[in-house]
Amino acid sequence: MRKRRIMMVLLVLLLCLQSTFVLAKTEPKINTNVKVLVNDKTVSSDAPPYIIEESGITMVPLRFISEALGAEINWDPKPKKITIHMESNSIYLTIGQKTAEVNGKKSALEVAPELRNDWTMVPLRFVSESLGAEVKWEAATKTAKIYSSGNNVPDVKPEEPDAGKEPEKKPDPTPVPKPEDPNKVPDTGQVNQDEMRAAWIATVFNIDWPSKPGLDIAKQKREFTDMLDNLKNIGMNSVIVQVRPTSDALYPSKLVPWSKVLTGTQGKDPGYDPLAFMIEETHKRGMEFHAWFNPFRANTDTKVEQLADNHPAKLHPDWVVAHRGLLLFNPGIPEVRAHIIDAIMEVVRNYDIDGVHLDDYFYPYGISDEPFQDDATFAKYNPKKIADKGNWRRDNINQFIQQLSASIKQVKSKIEFGVSPFGIWRNQSDDSTGSKTNGLASYDSLFADTRTWIRNEWIDYVAPQLYWSIGFKVASYDTLVDWWSQEVKNTKVKLYIGHAAHRLGTNSTDWATSDAIIGQLQYNSKRPEVKGSIFFSAKNLISNPVGIREALQTFYNKAN
C-alpha cells in the first residue's frame, strides 16, 4: 500500500514537471526593458510594454493607444475583437488572430494581439503607423519613438533592422533630395519600355502624394516631380496614380467633388489641375501614366455629413451601404455602376492617359464577419433570376467590368484597361482548378471572377497583388505566379505582378533584405507570361529600405 502511494506521488510530480516543461517551452520570451515616447514625451502605462524576443515585435497595452494617440477604442470581450478608430482610419483586430483589417483591407500580422495578465496587448508599430503616426526605433537604448500625425519627425538616419525593431509593412521614409531647378529633369538615361516597371502612387490618406493636405501648389508639384525623378532613376517606366480615392477627384469633375487629399477640404478647388500636371510631367520623362480608380469606395468613414454637397453618396443616400466603418457603393444597383463608369470615362475623354487601372475593391473585405446589407437590392435588381446571391454579386461585377471595357475601347481603343485583384482567385480546396493556397479568395470573398474577365479578354492586363514571399506556406509567391501564368496563357491579356515593397525592412526573415523582391523578379524572368512588375508603393522604393533602390537599379541594368 505504501509503495502504491509513493508511486502515485512520483507520478503526480512527473506530470507536474512535464507541464512545467511544456509551458516553459511554449511561452515566448519577452523583454520588458523597452521605453516608449510619444512626440518625445515619456508615456507611462499600468502594464509595461515588452518586446517578444523571437520576433522582435514591441507590444503595448490597448489603453496606451487610446491615451497616447487619442484613438477611440472599442473592446468586445465575447468574440475578443478590438476596434480602433482615429480620424479617417479604422483598424479591426482579434485576439489570437494574425490577420488585421485596416481601412477595409486585410493585412497580415507577424504576431497576433494577445491577453497577458488580463491586459490586452497589441503590436505597437503596426497599430501606430496604421493610424498615420510614424515610429522610430533606437536600438542602443531600446526606445520606440512615436510621432503622431502633424508632429515633426526628427531628420535622422534610420537604423538598420535589429532584434529590437518590430517588423512592419511601412518602412520609415527618408527625405528625397530636391533638384536645384524644379523644372529640370535629371538625365537618368532611357527607361526600358519592353516590360512594365511601375510603382503605385496612392493618394488616399496621403500615403504617397501629396505628403499632406493643404500644401501650396508649388510644393505639391515639386513633391510629384521629385517622386517621378527618383522612380525613373530606380528603373521605373510607368506610374499608376490614384486619381479617385473616395469617389472624389484629383481633377475638375462635373460628377464628383475635388478630393480632400489636396486641400484638406473635400470640394475645395486646389487652384490648378493636378491630373493634367501629373500626366504632362510623366510623359515628359518618357514614362507611362495609368489613372488608378477605386470604383466602389464612397468614403473611408460613415460620416455623410462631412462629405461635399455634390458627393454622390450625399446626393443619392440609397446608393450606399455602411460596412465595417466604411461607406461603400452598392454594386447591385445598375445606376451605381453606370455612374462609376461615367466618372471614369470623364477622365478617358478629357485626358491623355495611357491606362485605366482598378484595384482590388469590388464587394468589400470582411463580409464573413459583418454581412453586406444588400438583401433588398438582390430582390429588386435581379432580372436574370439568379438564385444564389454570390453568383448574383459576381454577375454585377462582371457586367461592370464588361461595360467599362467596352466604353473605354469605343472612345480610345489604345488605352489599356487593367485590374489589380487580390492575389488568390480560388483555393484548390474549393475549386480543383484553383491555386494550391489556403487564404482569402477574391472569387468567394470579394465576388471578383478574374478568370471570366481574362477568358473574355475584357481587360488588357491583370496585376494580381502577390504580397507573399517565396515559400510562404499559406500562399507561396512562386505557386501563385505559376497559377496566374497559366490563366493568361493563350490569351491577349498581359500578366504583371504586384510586389510588396511595403513589407521590406522588417525583422521577418522573409522580408529582411532586398533579396526578397529581387528573388521574385528573378523567378518572374523565367516565366514568359510575366510581362512586368508593379511595386506598392512609390514611397517605399524611394525611402530605400534594406537597399532596394540600388538592388533594383542593378537588376534592371543587367536586364537592359
Automatic annotation (TrEMBL):
**PANTHER family, alphabetically?**
GLYCOSYL HYDROLASE DIGH (PTHR43405)
Superkingdom of this entry's organism?
Bacteria
Q: Which intervals carry biased composition (Basic and acidic residues)?
A: 156-184
Provide the Glycosyl hydrolase-like domain boundaries: 195-507
Q: Which residues form the Copper amine oxidase-like N-terminal domain?
A: 38-146
Task: Using the record, list the residue span of the signal peptide; answer none if the entry has no such feature.
Answer: 1-24
For this protein, the record's Gene3D superfamilies field holds: Copper amine oxidase-like, N-terminal domain, Glycosidases
| InterPro entries named in the record | Cu_amine_oxidase-like_N (IPR012854), Divisome_Glycosyl_Hydrolase (IPR052177), GH (IPR017853), GHL10 (IPR003790), Mao_N_sf (IPR036582)
Its source organism is Paenibacillus albiflavus
What single Pfam family name could you report for this chain, choosing any that match?
Answer: GHL10
- Note the SUPFAM superfamilies from the entry: (Trans)glycosidases, Copper amine oxidase, domain N
Q: What is this protein called?
A: Family 10 glycosylhydrolase
Q: Keywords on this record? A: Signal
The segments labelled Disordered in the record are: 148-190
The answer to keyword Coiled coil applying to this record is no
